[in-house]
Amino acid sequence: MFKYFVKRMLLALLSLFVVLTIVFLLMRLMPVDGYFADRSDSMNEATKEAVLRSLGLLDPVPKQLLDFYGKLLRGDLGSSIVYRPRVPNAEILADKIPYSAYFGLASVTVSLVLGCGLGILMARSKAKFWDKIGTGYILLINAIPSIVYYLFFQVTVSGALGIPMLFSAKNPVTWILPLICMSLGGIASNAMWTRRYMVDELNKDYIALARAKGVKNSSIMVHHVLRNAFIPMAQYLPSNILYTVTGSIYVEALFSVPGMGGLLVTAIQRQDNTLVQALVLIYAGIGVVGLVLGDLLMALLDPRIALSKQGESR
Amino acid sequence: MTQAREPILKVRDLEVRFSLRGRTLTAIRGASLDVFEGESLAIVGESGSGKSVFVKSFMGMLDKNGLVTHGSIEYGGQDLAKFSAEKDWLKIRGRELAMVMQDPMTSLNPLKTVGAQIGEAIRLHQGLRGAQLKEAVVAMLEDVGIPNAAKRARQYPHQFSGGMRQRVVIAIAMACRPKILICDEPTTALDVTIQAQILSLIKELKQRHNLTTIYITHDLGVVANVADRIAVMYAGDVVELGTAEEIFYQPAHPYTWALLSSLPQLGIRGQDLYSIKGTPPNLFSHIKGDAFAPRNPQALAVDFEYRPPYFEISPTHKARTWLLDPRAPKVEPPPAIRHIRQVVGREDS
Q1: What are the two backbone dihedrals, phi and then psi, of residue B168, each rounded to the nearest 5 degrees?
Q2: Of the candidates A64, A135, B155, B214, which lies 20 to 30 Å from B307 by C-alpha distance?
Q3: Looking at residues A62-91, what average pLDDT do you find?
Q4: Topology (CATH) of A97-268
Q5: How far is B23 from chain A (nearest CA, A)?
Q6: Taking all residues of chain B, what is their mean pLDDT, rounded to a whole number?
Q7: What is the pLDDT of residue B267?
């Protein structure tokens, strides 16, 4: 198990290195005009060159790459160029990540609890009342573009309840609407998968055998169905939790939550190289670490998965 | 040998219906059967004859869309056909009747150790806990012939071969301490070398624990090996019932003739193997007369009009066919099955 884990982590580091290098090189291919934004016209060639030189952009690309990795190994994510000039990227992220992470974790928790709960309810009353209600809800959430119900909550619901339309960290009431908006989709997909995997398990032979030996239906649900149905979902759980720090572009923009959502888009648009690199590091890091943790979680829950050596069978 | 005893399970005129997409399928059409204490009964029939549904109804294990609509299942002074609440069935399942299912590869929970799954049954039916429970699990595994039981109890189903898994399934059934053990095609999914081992294990457990066993199978080889009595099912009804001797050597129903003629061992080298022409009747529609008549080359005109009653051939042997009516013309069974004695050679009597 341990050996497997180390191997997976090394592979994860390698993927991270490849992703970062490719993004780094791509950023260097973009026209340099981006670095001066709207000041481009008012600057002469000499000033421009001086700016580029001070940013280290006139060095040969291999040297720039080495510098970048050198800093990175010392834990330096560089400083922002355009977005908030000369402010360390780490500081920019430290301001924003908490908001996204709070909302994200809250919404993952809410959608896991309510979604799985709804899914269990639906599986138990298959083709009856709760199943139909749940299916209606899932269909509605998937059919309506999310921005439509986001706006509904922001404009109509906030008006009806007399809650401010925009987020303000000091006013606890303003946390509610963005959280609801962020959770509705997750509830729907968790409910759908929970129901589906539970119904799959319920139709299996071992459930019939458990009934035949006289186990109560309620304890079959708890001891046999739930855990088995949860395993296929467990793989994506770590990624889902980790990705919460990246925030939701729509919801954060709509309620003006000062989080991470949309930061990557802004940084790319404004060609803030160092910020883009820092963000890519976070996104890619979450991606690979999430996958490794997902596999490990599966292996912990499912004895059939032998990570290190071949399972014996006689 | 069985006629003097009171039946332990008495099924009368059982009718089981399923509703499927708004239509009603009658899977069991008024079947009756007595099961005597300590006997080994085999229910044979082709796929779709309703043999599995029939026994599942004894344990309240029909699928959700299935319902006993008529008849009675008398067991221990109660009519199981009237049960609907789970709490009633919990007194029957495992405790009185237990089941070994067809496919050992799927009938164990892949995420629980074998010991935990046997332990669940022991806890429920013998009330043991803790260290006593662990001991009982290991003893149970040893009882079904699994070597190294203490270690094996901590392993998961995927670490067992098919034959070993079936032993575990049998251990689970036995851990319930049932009076009747139902074996639903217990060897169909196993390879031939293992089949004999599993059958002799069940036979041995039956002897040792004084069980009544009901086998469901379409393998006449299995039947010849284990059964005292045989019930032949066709289209949701028991068409012939008798001791194994009677069914194999003096079969009376044309369907039993056809079934026995299909034994590959009766084939003659160079000739096509015998197969029953046509398909089983559509159970969605009402069946008039003898359900087997359309596939029976020797069917009489009356077969298409009226459902035959049971005609008694001996106190232990009866069949539902008009051929046994005194007014019926004399029809000889096909020549192939007259040689069956040389082929089937039952080892016991």
Answers
A1: -65, -45
A2: B214
A3: 87
A4: MetI-like fold (1.10.3720)
A5: 17
A6: 91
A7: 76
What's the N-to-C CA distance of chain B in angstroms? 11
- Is B228 or A300 the better-scoring residue by pLDDT? B228
The full length of chain A comes to 314
Indicate the DSSP class of residue B5: S
Q: Distance between CA atoms of B128 and B118, rounded to whole angstroms? A: 12
B120 with A215: Cβ contact below 8 A? yes
Q: Do B160 and A314 touch (CB under 8 A)?
A: yes
Q: Which residue has the tokens 């963000």?
A: A279
In this structure, how many other beta carbons lie within 10 angstroms of the beta carbon of residue B255? 26
CB atoms B94 and A214 under 8 Å: yes
d(CA B209, CA B188): 24
Size of interface A-B (CB pairs under 8 A): 87
Helical (H) or strand (E) element with A104 = helix A89-124
> pLDDT-based confidence at A169, cuts 50/70/90?
confident
Are A213 and B103 in contact (CB < 8 Å)?
no
Give the residue among B236, B305, B184 at the shortest CA–CA distance from B69.
Answer: B236
- Kindly give the interhelix angle for A273-301 and A89-124, rounded to the nearest 10 degrees: 30
Closest alpha carbon within chain B to A226: B111
ipTM value for the complex: 0.86
What is the mean predicted confidence (pLDDT) over A140-169?
91
Strands (E), A114-186: none
Claim: this prediction has a pTM higher than 0.90: no
With CA atoms as reference, report the closest residue to A130 among A138, A118, A139: A118
Please tell me the predicted confidence (pLDDT) of residue A245: 79
| C-alpha span between B101 and A213 (Å, rounded) | 11
Nearest to B112 by CA among A290, A123, A215, A236: A215
d(CA A194, CA A173): 31
Structural domain boundaries in chain A: 97-268
Q: Name the residue of chain B whose CA is nearest to A298's CA.
A: B111
A314·B169 Cβ contact <8 A: no
Q: How far apart are CA B175 and CA B45, in angstroms?
A: 29
Mutate to test the interface with A, among B84, B97, B158, B164 (most CBs of A within 10 A): B158
How far, CA to CA in Å, does A179 sit from each of A99, A185, A253? 11, 11, 13
Report the chain A residue with the minimal C-alpha distance to residue B155: A303
Residue from A201, A204, A206, A222 to probe the interface with B (highest B Cβ count within 10 Å)? A206
- B296 torsion bin: left (phi>0), alpha (psi -120 to 50), beta (else): beta
Phi, psi of B297 (to 5 degrees): -65, -25
Spatial neighbors of A248 by CB under 8 A, at least 6 apart, are: A100, A103, A104, A182, A259, A261
Strand boundaries in chain B, DSSP class E: 7-20, 23-36, 40-44, 66-75, 78-79, 97-100, 180-184, 212-217, 229-234, 237-243, 311-314, 317-319
